[in-house]
Design a protein that fits this description.
The protein is 13% helix and 58% strand. With 212 residues, the protein is mainly β. The radius of gyration is 24 Å and the shape is elongated.
C-alpha cells in the first residue's frame, strides 16, 4: 500500500513540475515578437546598493514612459542616491568622513531604432533633461548645490516575456552638467563620446522594465 501511495505522490509531483515548466516555457515564448503600440506604458528603473569597508552607497532611479507610437516614448524620471565615505580606522577622531546625498527629477524622450532576435532585443537612443539638488557633508561643514543636466544615451531592452524586460544603458554619447553650489563658483562640464563600440560593456548599467 505504501509503495502505491509513494508512486502516486511521485507521479503527481512529476506532473506538477512538468506543468510548471510548460508554463515557464510559454511565458518565455511570449517574449518573441513584442511590438510596441501607441498608448503602451512602462515602468523602468534600477536599484544599486553597495556596503562594506569605508564606503556605503544606495541609489534608486525609477522612471515612467508613455508611447506616442510604436517607436517613440516620452516620460519622467526620479533619482535618489546617498554615498557615505567613512573615516578609516587609523584616522583621527576629528575626521568624520564625507556624506553626499542627491535628489533629482527629469524628463526623457526615447526612440527605438533596431529590433533583433525575433524582436526580443530592442535598441534605443534617449535624450534626457534633469534637475538635481545635492548636499555634501564633510565633518561639521555642509554645502548644497543645484545642477542642470542633459544627456544622450544608447540602451537596449531584452524581453523575457511580453511584459518584462531587462534594460542595459550601454553608452553615454553626450552629457552636459551645470552645477551651482551654495558656497563657491558655478561650473559647467561637457562630454562628447563618439567611440561607442570600443568597449560598450565596460561599465553598463542594468535595470528592469515592466510594460503594461
Amino acid at each position: 500500500m505504501k509503495s502505491k501511495i509513494t508512486a502516486i505522490l511521485a507521479l503527481l509531483a512529476f506532473s506538477f513540475a512538468n506543468a510548471q515548466q510548460q508554463e515557464v516555457d510559454e511565458q518565455l515564448k511570449t517574449g518573441k515578437g513584442v511590438q510596441f503600440e501607441k498608448g503602451d506604458m512602462f515602468m523602468e528603473g534600477s536599484i544599486k546598493i553597495s556596503t562594506g569597508g569605508t564606503n556605503d552607497y544606495y541609489g534608486l532611479s525609477p522612471q515612467f514612459g508613455y508611447f506616442l507610437n510604436d517607436k517613440i516614448a516620452i516620460g519622467g524620471k526620479l533619482s535618489f542616491s546617498s554615498n557615505e565615505v567613512k573615516k578609516a580606522s587609523d584616522e583621527s577622531d576629528a575626521i568624520n568622513g564625507t556624506k553626499t546625498t542627491q535628489f533629482g527629477v527629469g524628463a526623457f524622450a526615447r526612440y527605438y531604432f533596431l529590433e533583433l532576435a525575433s524582436k526580443r532585443f530592442k535598441a534605443y537612443s534617449e535624450v534626457g533633461l534633469g534637475y538635481g539638488h545635492n548636499k555634501t557633508e564633510i565633518n561639521s561643514y555642509s554645502d548644497t548645490s543645484n545642477s542642470i543636466t542633459a544627456d544622450i544615451n544608447v540602451g537596449l531592452n531584452y524581453f523575457f516575456t511580453k511584459n518584462l524586460a531587462v534594460s542595459f544603458t550601454l553608452a553615454n554619447i553626450l552629457s552636459y552638467n551645470s552645477v551651482s553650489p551654495e558656497n563657491g563658483p558655478s561650473s559647467n562640464t561637457f562630454n562628447l563620446n563618439l567611440n561607442l563600440f570600443e568597449n560598450i560593456f565596460d561599465t553598463p548599467q542594468f535595470g528592469l522594465l515592466y510594460r503594461f
